[in-house]
């Protein structure tokens, strides 16, 4: 077995090539090394993994890591092996021979970290297999999966509350990047972490640019967004499997290199696509939310949503897969009233959900709608949801770069609500807008709505504006959707305050297509080359090509050779010898021995 490091900083520099810890990392690590439990709530990209990987190398024994996804376990194990760390996993995705070899190494004491699924760790047979192995630390990764409030709830995680009893005296560390206050309470209660020290870092991801737009032509809007990321890797999320496949095929027709991923694919094909995304550069992956939890690829430069996610937690987690290396990255989402109606319908029609669960899910959706419709800073609204105050506008979201106009919509809101009331709360927004703008249709005539006082009272506004009005009224919870009545709009209790003018209604003014075109230029491409001169960008591309060649020969992902941040540092600092290269963040002793000379030669040339 690898000899334990005597000091965490020594392990950090020797193995990972970093001189100092970031944020609260060192405090977490020293807490665990003192034998105490810890709950770590750090956003993606803040180095959560080091909080248990470094203690694993400093403790005289085995660290067990509980992870929800087999693909994620394999990815992290390969990353550690590339660093020279003795890590392995037991999983159903491996052959019997491979799992037997892991067991042999376990019994021989040759492993420092062993990754397993939550189902496996609570099995008596697994605990018996540990035999005389000294377990020094237990890590529960993606611990938000234990909570029904959290995104990606997993029933298998509920059994992990017994770990304290199963492994008495062994410190436990639970980590997640996605946890609002309700989810945090659940994690502590269900994992029996009442005595754990809680570490909460800022949920802000300052390198990520947020953009949310109302959908006019979803595909064209996506095309304009993707045009800024030539040669970069990214993810496009869609709600349905059919839309995933259709969007992927269309992107390939437009000249992009795209693959698709969803839960109904054959396991072999899913594994192939995951591996392609991990190993290749410049691949666009079109997927449902079945892809991505805990994704280990640091240089995902963009994440786009063509449909509305289900919650702020889901949106934050999915967009958080961009820019884990800290370099500039962008997110983009289009949505419409149809998305909102569909999401509400999915909540109401889920026969497995209790009334309380549906209430929680409606609240989550409404919180996301409030962020979509905000006239203020997107980042401020997102962080506020997680209980964090952001002092000033961020300057790195669409509403900060292109401030949104507001208008007093009280009269328009009263007209819209009156149309709902006068027509009996029986119709969807399409028909209600026809009534408001005075459009004579078969339906408005059939129900006699052309004779109603509200018919045509909203001719001063366009159909697009009325769509925005109804969307924002829904976000404000002045109206709701009755899915038992084919998506009819109904009035909420607060509608009475609007009718009686006890409150002012202020709407955001949606941008016209011309406005969107004129503001595009300000949203510069966010990629690995940002901030580099033309000459430096040429060297960066040369080093990236060298990295790809080395990774193919070694059978590992390019970022496992060196991440983009390290390549950028090579370009800026131009190391000419071993000492200078080892001083660059991300270059540890093992990686220098394997790859250092190749990059020194390329830089010198």
UniProtKB/TrEMBL annotation:
One GO BP annotation of this record: DNA replication
A GO cellular-component term linked to this record: cytoplasm
Helicase C-terminal domain ranges (all copies): 221-366
Question: Which intervals hold domain Helicase ATP-binding?
Answer: 29-197
Catalytic reactions on record: Couples ATP hydrolysis with the unwinding of duplex DNA by translocating in the 3'-5' direction
Keyword terms of this UniProt record: ATP-binding, DNA damage, DNA recombination, DNA repair, DNA-binding, Helicase, Hydrolase, Isomerase, Metal-binding, Nucleotide-binding, Zinc
Supply the EC number(s): 5.6.2.4
**Co-factor requirement:** Mg(2+); Zn(2+)
Q: Give a GO molecular function annotation for the protein.
A: 3'-5' DNA helicase activity
User: Where in this chain does the record put each HRDC domain?
Assistant: 533-605
Pfam families attached to this UniProt entry: DEAD, Helicase_C, HRDC, RecQ_Zn_bind, RQC
Annotated family: Belongs to the helicase family. RecQ subfamily.
Task: Kindly provide the name given to this protein in its UniProt entry.
Answer: DNA helicase RecQ
